């Protein structure tokens, strides 16, 4: 019988697609969950779900108590709190992996729609994942990244599916209620419109119209137009841009910065060596997102999601799709995909301790032993001088202890940050600052309060209650 | 009339006419490319923080006829080994200072800056750029590297780097000239730690030659090797290589010193650097022709050096212009267009240069005009001169240390900009005092310090604390800083 044999397995293009999307999922499952920007969101989400009201003022710290807090991320907080209620930290970890999978699915699709062959689309997607990997913590920004990836996909697929473009204003409405990066949607559309104009594409007016509608859609939130000033204020707040690590400009000496500059060099070299003529709108898009990345580490992620798709557009848009001889299903491909699935199962959060007293667990920046000691030995309501990185964790697990500072840098007055810094470096007079604040206990991290620890240990006014590898807890004698 | 005499008269008239002829637009461009950096250098001040101690070191060496081998300036590192690789630059600075004081040094700096950009302009021309293009590229290079033009040994390194860049780009027209590079390197290794860039440049040029199948590639490689060998012709031999590597990888230096930090888009130098990278990348992407991998590597390596530290930007600013010039299409020079308007423009530049001469803002050697020398706390120094006993040690802010080492030569300081010679413990102790950490008094007690000089920037945290401390008394204060003396000592 000469009938062709039915081959079972997975084709190579399908394997590439699977790897591009599933590899980030596996890595996300393996990674821990940082509580710095997550735990306090859960508390806020719980509050909103419980009271059916938004949080409008700070109630977590004693230094900014009652000060206004424009909680633009309230939607993300509710979503995170719901997932946490459903299954705790492990469900949150799984949820993060799913969101990351969705991010890179959209990116892969965007590269494909831009004309890239599955293998190239997969390689570009994996390259994007490598550069963005430092920014994939579970927090409202991850929803911003997801919505950005979806917008990129819709924008780059607009020539084939012009009607889909109208989904973007809907995405923007969601976006403006989960994260301050919503303004990137109109930016992407504006750049797409310039490209349409340059190429005399028929849908240019539609692209512009969708951009304008997206700008208007961003005002559909509880704070109206104020979210725009919030987005600008956050990115220009001197306290944030000075002290918060991810708001620092990238340098070649930090891993995220090295990857960023490496990706920029790779883009230039690929375009130069590929002898592709590049139009100015594409150059402008690359330049704009490169500039956003240059400004702050957290801007790198947008660059890393836009650059691969532009590259795919430049390299493959005008080339016919190639069907290779190896596109038939093969068992080995299915085996490789199966291996990844096995890895994912092995990394599921259910096999890990959430926050062990010693060693590493699912959570990072979660000093459980010190927190237990705090709850055991310090009366509720006592003011805590805390390491900034632990503020969020304390606010969630020990809500009856008002803290000094937390991850919401913009809420805390600049003067408080100065005093916090003086105490943390053990400057002469640190005791009087704690006295003035009527602080009853000090939860100091070995890194952030490195200089304070030797002094407070010797100080007769303070007693060491608990100590572990991450920090120390002191109470006033 | 004797025909010979007539001919001589005619020739003389020709010469006179040529002398009086207005400059061409090309001449104006060439002049402006070099003169603008010179004028900018004339207008700029001389920061003393990396200069004054070099003069003092030079003075010691000229006086003793020995290269300094141990620290003579501080009491915390006194007698510790100091590999003074920049000894040649220090002697040069001392000689200029002796001859002309701060004004002489300012003029010397301007002359060096002029040489640097003349060489960059010539390198652009050697790379095939038209005069106007070469001028624009030179001015662009100046804009990028302007932050590195303070007078210190590095400026001599930059001049020699520009010289090597020029010789490298001239290697196809004048193959023999490239043999000057080893001589330059031998000089360079006695002036500044950047000497390794000479063999490095030649190595990159050799890769280009191999790629382009140039007949003299082997010569370029031989000169690179000879340059590497020439760098050992110094009082410290091979140890200067370890010094160059050690300085650039010293974790304290790369963490503490501003110009050893990687550039960011938020500081002016970094912003200009990144803008220049974007401009070059845009040029490469948009140009119609292909770019060879050695060219990309050449540019990429210097981008990487710039990304690693702010002071690396300056090399990029000097090498990128001729690299870009090399990639531009070779065009014909426009017809000679002489005009007195060109002369007027040149005269304006000269007039601005004359009005910027440091001669109009002199002062004395110990109290130079603040418009000429900066990071030189003259009033604080005068007060220190009054309160310090001969040979007495005192606490100093690091930026002022160099100035104090020149002007208070009998009083050793705590710490100075030569971070590499100090143990970490000393750096920590200095920081404890500067930040007013609990126990700062213990550090001053332990070293027997009776006098503290405080800079309002560096010791901004200490000043309010020491002002309130009953053990110390403020004897002098001005907007720059203050002097405190221990009570009862």
Word description of this protein:
The complex is a heterodimer of chains A (477) and B (489). Chain A has 477 residues and is mostly helical. In chain A, 56% of the residues lie in helices and 6% in strands. Chain A has helices at residues 12-30, 39-51, 74-113, 118-132, 140-156, 167-175, 184-198, 204-217, 226-236, 238-243, 255-273, 280-295, 300-316, 331-346, 368-377, 391-397, 414-424, 430-436, 453-458, and strands at residues 33-34, 363-364, 383-386, 439-445, 462-467, 471-476. In chain A, the strands form two sheets. A four-stranded mixed β-sheet of chain A has the order 3-4-6-5, sandwiched between helices. A two-stranded parallel sheet of chain A has the order 1-2. In chain A, strand 5 and strand 6 (471-476) form a beta hairpin. In chain A, helix 17 packs across helix 18. The longest helix of chain A has 40 residues, at 74-113. Chain A starts with 11 loop residues before the first helix and ends with a strand. The mean pLDDT of chain A is 92. Chain B is mostly helical. Chain B has 20 helices and five strands. Chain B has a three-stranded antiparallel β-sheet with strand order 3-5-4, sandwiched between helices. Chain B has a two-stranded parallel sheet with strand order 1-2. In chain B, a hairpin with a 3-residue loop joins strand 4 and strand 5. In chain B, helix 2 (25-43) runs antiparallel to helix 4 and helix 4 runs parallel beside helix 6. The radius of gyration of chain B is 26 Å and the shape is globular. The mean pLDDT of chain B is 92. The chains are: A mainly alpha (477), B mainly alpha (489). The interface between A and B is medium-sized, with 34 and 33 residues.
